[in-house]
Amino acid sequence: MQDLHIHMHPGRKDPPETFKEKTLAAGVTGGAVFSIVPESYRVESGVDQRWQARAEQILEFCSRAPGFRPVFFIDPTVSDAIEQVHAIAEMGIAGFKVICNHFYPVDGLKTYQAIAETGLPLIFHSGVLYNKQPSSDYNRPMSYEFLMDVKGLRFSLAHVSWPWSAELVALFGKLNYLDQKAPEGRSRMYFDITPGTPPIFRRDALRWMYMCGFNMKHRVLWGTDCRSNFDPEYAKFWASLDKKIMAEIAADPNIYRVPGQDLYDYSDIWELATEKNFDDFFGKK
Ligand SMILES: [Zn+2]
């Protein structure tokens, strides 16, 4: 089982070896860990937040936690963002992370184009953002619609975009249709189903996603939103809930199928979301 969405936090944190033990205790054998945040997001006192230092730290951490890919948290609106993308791709980072907390997604367009050229994936936050400023308007799924024209970009939207999960599924329907029609000029969208969805909304959100009539089972990535001080009990809770909901969906995947639509076989959705889809997303052939 792999976990796409783990945040490195500054300050006291488990060494990679302890982190690895804790993930294994939850059955998580790999995934991705995000570097600490850029200064423009949050100033962490006493922490070196220069991009070089943040990149080196996450590379070093993951080199001692086999199976985990280092992902660099970038502010796509800073003046040297494109320079950062090129330098960081050279350093061996596996992907980029963006949270639109003080800008609209489209403000980072040039940076996303540069990321697409590196062939590395881009992991966005989406959904309500619990920070100290008004920022949720930057994170509604439809604000990411323009990404359809970012040629070659593989990107994910996190947290099933809660509370806008239905809007997320609608966006996927459009982008996926365009990608299937003419993949050369388009981006490819993935669902990062890391919670954010409170448990009571989880079943609805996953059912909307899988049963809306789009061919999307290869575009789902599972995650926990744990910190690098990993919490195995928390991870196990979500794994067990999601596995149960997916088994329920797989048991009767075609109840909303309209005549003429493809029949869905969803018997492998848990395995795809927690393992196989990771290779496609990270570009491993
Ligand atoms: Zn997160």
Q: Please give the domain count.
A: 1
Number of helices: 8
Percent range for β-strand residues: 5-15%
- What kind of sheet is the major sheet? 9 strands, parallel
Q: What is the annotated CATH architecture? A: Alpha-Beta Barrel
Q: What's the CATH first level?
A: Alpha Beta
> Any idea what the CATH superfamily is called?
Metal-dependent hydrolases
Q: What structural category do the secondary elements indicate?
A: alpha/beta
Distance between the termini: 19 Å
Query: Which distinct ligands sit in these coordinates?
Result: zinc ion
Q: What is the β-strand count?
A: 9
Q: How helical, in percent, are the residues? A: 25-40%
Radius of gyration from the alpha-carbon trace, in angstroms:
18 Å
Topology:
Blueprint: E1 2-7, H1 16-25, E2 30-34, H2 51-63, E3 68-73, H3 81-91, E4 95-98, H4 109-118, E5 122-124, E6 154-158, H5 165-181, E7 188-192, H6 199-211, E8 220-221, E9 226-227, H7 232-251, H8 269-281
Helix pairs in contact: 3-4, 6-7
Bound molecules: zinc ion (ZN).
Zinc ion is lined by residues 5, 7, 225.
Structure overview:
By secondary structure, the protein is of the alpha/beta class. It is 38% helix and 13% strand. The protein has helices spanning 16-25, 51-63, 81-91, 109-118, 165-181, 199-211, 232-251, 269-281, and strands spanning 2-7, 30-34, 68-73, 95-98, 122-124, 154-158, 188-192, 220-221, 226-227. It has a 9-stranded parallel β-sheet with strand order 8-7-6-5-4-3-2-1-9. Helix 3 packs parallel to helix 4 (109-118). The site of zinc ion (ZN) has 3 residues, from strand 1.
